[in-house]
């Protein structure tokens, strides 16, 4: 997507909420960086901020298992949850399904998939 980010500028993007707070998926952060996501969102007129968190703590079914709940919540509360709470005006974005569930569970905020945010901005024009 980053290699085509310049093409996004041809569209009339009008993001409703300009600030996006993005929690990158563990696989993306392990294999690469968040630069591709940053390039796409910025090309579409968004102000891109990262949560600075590592794993959300849910890790698939790990956090749903009773014996791992405390560890799962502690991981979320280390960086992710405080970052989300500190940005009440930002649209929270997370590509991972588990990450979106964890964010909603610990902060009561709904996190959207990147495609949902970009589609909404495009359709609002």
Q: How are strands sequenced across the largest beta sheet?
A: 2-1-3
CATH top-level class: Alpha Beta
What count of structural domains?
A: 1
Roughly how much helix do the residues carry, as a percent range?
40-55%
Class based on secondary structure composition and strand pairing: mainly alpha
Distance between the termini: 21 Å
Total strands: 3
CATH topology: Rossmann fold
Uncertain runs are none
Mean pLDDT across residues: 87
Largest sheet: number of strands, sense, barrel closure: 3 strands, parallel
SSE string:
HEHHEHEHH
Specify the overall morphology.
globular
Q: What is the number of helices? A: 6
Describe the protein in words:
The chain has six helices and three strands; from the N terminus they run αβααβαβαα. 46% of the residues lie in helices and 10% in strands. It is mostly helical and 125 residues long. It has a three-stranded parallel β-sheet with strand order 2-1-3, with helices on both faces. The mean pLDDT is 87. The protein has one domain (2-123): Rossmann fold (3-Layer(aba) Sandwich).
Give the SSE map.
Layout: H1 5-8, E1 19-23, H2 26-31, H3 35-43, E2 47-50, H4 69-85, E3 91-94, H5 97-107, H6 114-123
Parallel strand pairs: 1-2, 1-3
What labels would you give this structure?
125 residues, mainly alpha, Rossmann fold, three-stranded parallel beta sheet, 6 helices, 3 strands, globular
How would you briefly describe this protein structure?
The protein has helices at residues 5-8, 26-31, 35-43, 69-85, 97-107, 114-123; strands at residues 19-23, 47-50, 91-94.
